[in-house]
Fold this sequence. Notes:
Elements: E1 2-6, H1 11-22, E2 26-30, H2 40-50, E3 54-57, H3 65-70, H4 72-92, E4 97-101, H5 130-150, E5 154-159, E6 161-163, H6 176-190, E7 194-198, E8 204-205, E9 207-209, H7 210-223, E10 230-232, E11 238-239, H8 240-250, E12 256-260, H9 275-281, H10 289-303, H11 305-309
Parallel strand pairs: 1-2, 1-3, 3-4, 4-5, 5-10, 6-9, 7-12
Antiparallel strand pairs: 8-11
Helix pairs in contact: 1-7, 2-4, 4-5, 6-8, 6-10
Amino acid sequence: MKALVTGGGGFLGSHVVERLEAEGYDVFVGRRKDYDLTDPAGAARMFEDSQPEVVLHLAAEVGGIGANRANPGRYWYANLMMGAHVLEESRRRKVGKVVVLGTVCSYPKFAPTPFREDDLWNGYPEETNAPYGVAKKALLVGAQTYRAQYGLNSIYLLPVNLYGPRDNFDLETSHVIPALIRKMTEARDRGEREVVLWGDGSPTREFLYVEDAAEAIVLATQRYDGPDPVNLGTGEEISIRDLSELVAELAAYEGELVWDTSKPNGQPRRKLDTSRAEELFGFRARTPLRKGLARTVAWYEASAPAYAAG
């Protein structure tokens, strides 16, 4: 089967491509340098070149709290337009199935924990990443309405924060785990006595190892054909303070962690109800956080000299 993976050269996409190829798919990798999906002509050219039977839309413009605060308009526009163009081209070309990836950032700021898919519309997202979250949530509406009007088999998955080898370790745009790993390892190597971190460390987050996420996405591609959104995660949360101490331990950093409370905390809690994914397509995360973090630290130290060199 011919599969088009948008964002297939990125962090998550590269792992999904490997998983699909191992399952026997003929994979076409849509890369940003080759196709501008915010332009309808760019999206049309990508579909013409790939002739897909199934589309996995993983392309996104993403970042941590700082990047979201700096680029709210861009993140809203780019993510909305890319998804809309992928859905429209899939409709036009009668693609057999579309897998759209959403984000945990779409959930309301004060959603009851664990987050259940039915609570997705019961409030506004946390302000620092709301433009990105709202844009991605609009794609759920697109997927459902294209299914209702045109019969397009489009499914929608909601992953939590991902981490693992090949993540983005740029401190200007990275998420919390790669940022912590880079800060701790560089502080260790420089002999610095303290590392300054944003907020007060009290918010909780849930993290899914990237290889587990790739497994979940491929399982959903093969086994799920329904209209309802589905969470992807571990169902376990950890405070940012405890996470930071764990990363420091794994990176062998022995200095002090200093919390800059003038910086935002972000959403107070994030923890998903992951029962729907297990019920509908048999996914359950397998990688414990400590093991996944250790693998990620090892990959960063061995494979990312460009980051370490600055």
